[in-house]
């Protein structure tokens, strides 16, 4: 009997180069190498929290692609369905830290292996024995056929009885124009059960300032649950006619905010998927506060380290932080 998969996630991961010093990349000579990608960040975080995760992607049949596959396999993520592209490379990107504001990001992913995703790649077995699909808006921005690919995967997941979560994860550098981004993201919301925008993304998608009105607009599109990330004010969930707010976990200093939204999603899903019928309103009444609390904690922790996923905590560490269980350190 095949092992049940809690979450399938689909998207591009790239090799990430981070400078060993702060300042303009022009004058940086030493870099550390890692991997990064919204969906693989979520996959690793969920795996560390005890969930069984399958990651689907296309990578180049090159050393960078092997780096990504090996890293995820080492984190106990199922990578058996990853496609190795013989003709397109694995994407890479660089971060630039300048001591003020968020890091600058430089992508080198155009014509990457993952940008070639199309409907013909989809295999029914991707979703076999799985409960939930998590995707982001990044994939739809990558290539000529990736919007249709995303829609088909989300539809297939719902047909097979999976629940679907969708994080818009807007990356403006990837879209030709903002109008196109808004149209595509809004078209994908209706195919999801759980929608996870940030407050600025919500404003962008609806053109309205009030996040409660935005949440109601999104619920009308089809999702059963909308969770809006409020940054330093925490997060808020809407389902049915209910609203649940959770305070933020405060941090003194933000080292690197990249990946915080992915950590948030993983923390939230890790609790939600403890239940057989996670979107039943009775279940949500019982679990939503705990799910938001986990999400806020993981999102805050992700800002404390450079790198997109390396600081993701294990379940025992989360329990200690949430319930103040002091570990034995020696």
Automatic annotation (TrEMBL):
PANTHER family listed in its UniProt record: HEXOKINASE FAMILY MEMBER, PSEUDOURIDINE KINASE-RELATED
Database matches in CDD domains: KdgK
UniProt name for this protein: Sugar kinase
Pfam family, one: PfkB
Keyword Hydrolase carried by entry: no
PROSITE patterns assigned to the protein according to its UniProt record, in alphabetical order: PFKB_KINASES_2 (PS00584)
Span of domain Carbohydrate kinase PfkB: 6-311
Transferase keyword on record: yes
Transmembrane domains' residue ranges: none
Organism of provenance: Fervidibacillus albus
Superkingdom, natural source: Bacteria
GO biological process, one term: fructose metabolic process
UniProt xrefs under InterPro entries: Carboh/pur_kinase_PfkB_CS, PfkB_Carbo_kinase, PfkB_dom, Ribo/fructo_kinase, Ribokinase-like
Keyword entries, A-Z: ATP-binding, Kinase, Nucleotide-binding, Transferase
